[in-house]
Amino acid sequence: MRRPNTVKCTCGLIAAVVGLDLYFYFVRELLVSLALFSVAFLILTLAALAAVFLWWASEQLASRSGPTSRWVIAASRRAIAAYARL
Predict the structure, then answer these.
(1) With the C-alpha atoms ordered 19, 22, 24, 30, is the resulting torsion angle positive or negative?
(2) Residue 47 belongs to some domain of the structure
(3) What gap in Å lies between CA 22 and CA 2, rounded to an integer?
(4) Residue 70 to residues 52, 53, 79, 80, 81: CA-CA distances in angstroms?
(5) Residue 44 belongs to domain spanning
(6) Distance of alpha carbon 34 from alpha carbon 57, whole angstroms
(7) Nearest partner of 27 among 39, 36, 18, 35, judged by Cα
(8) At what angle do helices 25-63 and 67-85 cross, to 10 degrees?
(9) Per-residue buried b or exposed e for 46-74, using 16+ beta carbons within 10 Å of the residue's own CB
(10) What confidence tens digit (pLDDT) does each residue in 16-56 have?
């Protein structure tokens, strides 16, 4: 007598439960909400990472450019610090 494969049984059971639950409206609504919020948070995370990367790249570029750029960096840091105190 063969022993059933646990992974296949578990995956089949999960697929059956999800398949049967998709017939219920509230479960479909929850799954759609989960998908939409996941996509929204992914977009927000990517936007935040892009902003941080652009800030870092501008700092690197300005620090290698010369003394005038360093003055601009100092002024922008003062502006950001003043905005953060608000």
Answers:
(1) positive
(2) yes
(3) 33
(4) 19, 19, 14, 15, 16
(5) 6-85
(6) 34
(7) 18
(8) 140
(9) eeeeeeeeeeeeeeeebeeeeeeeeeeee
(10) 777 776 667 777 788 889 999 999 999 999 999 999 999 89
Collapsing DSSP to helix, strand or coil, 64 comes out as coil
pTM exceeds 0.70: no
**Residue holding tokens 């870092």?**
56
Number of domains the chain is built from: 1
Amino acid sitting at position 31: L
> Is 1 within the bounds of a domain?
no
Query: Of 82, 83, 63, 61, which is closest to residue 71 (Cα–Cα)?
Result: 63
Tokens of 10: 């578990």
Is there a contact between 73 and 63 (Cβ–Cβ < 8 Å)? yes
